[in-house]
Amino acid sequence: MRLNIMAAAALFVCVNAGAQDFFSWEFGMPEPAAKESKVKFLYDAYFDYKLDNREFDEGNEQFTESMTLYGARLTPSLGLQVKQNSNVKHKLMIGIDLMKEFGRHPSAVANSPECDRGLENTRLFREITMYYGLDADLGRWNIRGYAGVFPRHLAEGEYSQAFFSDSLKFYDNNLEGVLIKAYGPKTYAEFAFDWNGQYGPYRREQFNAFGFGKYSFNDFVSAGLAFKYHHYANAAEYGSVVDDAMVQPFVRFGFEKFCGWQDLSATLSWYQTFQQDRRQADGQNNPGGAELTVSLRNWNVGIENRLYYGKDLMPFYNYVDDGGFKYGNDLYGGSPFYRI
């Protein structure tokens, strides 16, 4: 009987303590959690600072001139996000791309007077960014998409400099078109379409379609494929359409798990191009080559060494079109060292 009374007293104390927690002393009944708003204000800012001193005198500047690239860019943006449901979000963003190449003015020559409008800071506003974004969680896969004018860094593929040189990525900071990315178990893939030339009297119609995919077998080995297709079409005053396509299968061996570094890896690649200058009767040229890349990085500081063995991946680089303009960097966006 005594045990029953003690048990009942203990139960009363526990219930009473629980009631005091539930009916808090100051606020009474707990308020229900506030519902998350379907519309949310977003803001973002991307900053890039580049210092690249290039000295190629020992090679007699065979592929490119010695120079120093030094500048900074800031791309702020703001917009709205709309939550369709717990798995799908939409957003609209607008921003401005500002870039200053140190020691150089956007639209003034070296002997410009101090009153030249080309010296005004307003000329640093290079381009408007405006785009739609989608984020959809589909269970095992997460899909993200962008359409409009958006920063190039949203493309996460690990493209070699045979595709896009570091200077191109700095000076041509934005893509104009569409980007789709997919994240899955051990897998990442993306596809982008960049319309980078509007048809005009002396301006070629052109676009770049490129993509990247990688599958990680384990912490040590991964493999994938990168590709591009550049359509370099006519201008109103002259012809000579050029097709420039390239694929790069690769396998990567990563040793980061064994040493705890950010990146300690070796990558074996093969480049295979498919190129055609339709103006030429024998205008087909399909050079290729192999590459070994060794990368070492920790604390966001590192070195990377590329050893390429193969043919000139830019066989039409020095060709001149019917308008008297050299193809050069307008056709090829990769590093000029792949012209070896």
List the helices and strands and how they pair.
Blueprint: H1 2-22, E1 39-54, E2 67-83, E3 88-101, E4 125-137, E5 142-151, H2 166-171, E6 174-184, E7 187-197, E8 206-216, E9 221-232, E10 242-254, H3 256-259, E11 263-277, E12 284-285, E13 288-298, E14 301-310, H4 328-331
Antiparallel strand pairs: 1-2, 2-3, 3-4, 4-5, 5-6, 6-7, 7-8, 8-9, 9-10, 10-11, 11-12, 11-13, 13-14
Can you tell me about this structure?
- This protein is mainly beta.
- It has two domains: 33-137; 147-340, no CATH class.
- Helices cover 10% and strands 49% of the residues.
- Strands 1, 2, 3, 4, 5, 6, 7, 8, 9, 10, 11, 12, 13 and 14 form a 14-stranded antiparallel beta sheet that branches.
- Strand 4 (125-137) and strand 5 (142-151) form a beta hairpin.
- The longest helix has 21 residues, at 2-22.
- The protein is globular and about 65 Å long.
- The relative contact order is 0.09.
- Mean pLDDT is 85; it is low at 1-28.
Task: List its traits.
340 residues, mainly beta, 2 domains, 14-stranded antiparallel beta sheet, 14 strands, globular
> What is the total number of structural domains?
2
Tally the beta strands: 14
Element order: H for helix, E for strand: HEEEEEHEEEEEHEEEEH
Number of helices: 4
Radius of gyration: 28 Å
Strand content: over 45%
Percentage of residues in helical conformation: 10-25%
Which stretches of 5+ consecutive residues score pLDDT under 50? 1-28
Distance between the termini: 98 Å
